[in-house]
Every structure is written in structure tokens, then in C-alpha cells.
Design a protein that fits this description.
3 strands; 3-stranded mixed sheet; single chain; 6% strand; mainly alpha
Length: 192
């Protein structure tokens, strides 16, 4: 930890105790590695929102199929790598029928067997496709069949669309608390 965060390692460890992640080192590490990027993304969204209409989202659905086979990870209590809501998992929701990776199929994260989106996942996909299509057409993702997606204000507290089952909203305060942005804002220097 000290190799990555130097003098800030103690502060980072204090915010991410292993006990908060079921003593799963993989889950704790994933949060320490990804939370700063989420907070940096918030910084960029706020800069954009001051200039143009801007919409923020947080894809948090953790049970989607994944496009890599189950990968052994002995440090995880599950024995396997857990992709959860990792980067690019949402692509299959926006482009129905998308199969990433070398296998050409999406696999269930628990069983490792091929699986397409199903049930409430299809509803989430329909809502995401509707919102992105409306945004591409009108510059505003809100409309029929799309969930309410608030525009970021030019200043002040923003609201994110939380893409999950079910969809919801997430205040900037909640987002900052979830991803420990107070810590990362004190440790990192954002450009601009």
C-alpha cells in the first residue's frame, strides 16, 4: 500500500479496512483502485456542467454476465475473480447482443456458463438504450421509456442516474460518500 500511496497510505487504509469487504482482499483492492477514478470523473463532470448540459450516471449493477471466463483468484474467498460492475460490463446493456472478449459469449459470473441478459436486466437494457438514443437525437436523455436522468446543475449539488436493478438516483453527497471522494480529493491532484 505504501508503494502506491506513499505518505497517504495510512489514510487510505483507514478508509478501506478489510473488514468492510468481508475480509476479501480483491473487493477492497478493487475499491481502492477504482474509487479515485470515480471521484476524478465527478471532477470532470462538474467542469463540463459549467459549460454545457451534462448528465452523470453510475452503473452499479453487479450480477450481469461477463465476457471473460471465470478466472481463478486464490486470494478471493470465492476462489475466482469477481468482475461485478467492472468497466465495460455496461456495454452489453447499451448494445443488445454484444459479446466481448475472445469467447464471443457472455458468461454468468456465478456458474461460468453462457448467459444472455434476462428478466429485469432486459428492462434495464431497454431503459439505457432509450436514454442514450434520446440523448443522441435530442441532446437530452429524458423521454418515453427512459428513466428520469437529471441534468447536472451549472453549480451546486448534482444528481446521478444510478443504473442498477432497479434504477434510481444518487445525490452528489451520496456519490462522494460511496466513493470516499473527500479522501481522494485530498490525496489526488486533478488536472484543470
Amino acid at each position: 500500500m505504501s508503494a502506491s500511496w506513499g505518505a497517504n497510505a495510512g489514510a487510505v487504509l483507514a478508509q478501506y479496512p478489510l473488514s468492510n469487504y468481508g475480509n476479501d482482499t480483491e473487493l477492497a483492492y478493487n475499491r481502492v483502485a477504482s474509487d479515485p477514478k470515480k471521484c476524478g470523473g465527478l471532477h470532470v463532470l462538474k467542469l463540463w456542467a459549467a459549460k454545457v448540459p451534462t448528465y452523470g450516471w453510475d452503473f452499479t449493477y453487479t450480477k450481469a454476465p461477463f465476457y471473460f471466463p471465470k478466472m481463478p483468484y486464490p486470494m478471493s474467498p470465492t476462489g475466482s475473480f469477481q468482475p461485478l460492475a467492472s468497466h465495460t460490463t455496461d456495454i452489453q446493456f447499451l448494445f443488445p447482443g454484444y459479446h466481448g472478449g475472445q469467447l464471443g459469449v457472455n458468461l454468468d459470473q456465478t456458474t461460468g456458463l453462457p448467459r444472455e441478459l434476462e428478466g429485469a436486466e432486459l428492462t434495464l437494457s431497454d431503459q439505457m438504450v432509450a436514454a442514450w438514443t434520446l440523448f443522441a437525437k435530442n441532446g437530452d436523455p429524458n423521454g418515453p421509456r427512459a428513466v428520469r436522468w437529471p441534468v447536472f446543475p451549472r453549480s451546486g449539488e448534482a444528481t446521478f442516474l444510478r443504473q442498477d436493478i432497479p434504477n434510481g438516483s444518487e445525490s452528489e453527497k451520496q456519490f462522494r460518500a460511496n466513493y470516499k471522494c473527500d479522501l481522494w480529493d485530498s490525496v489526488l491532484t486533478y488536472p484543470l
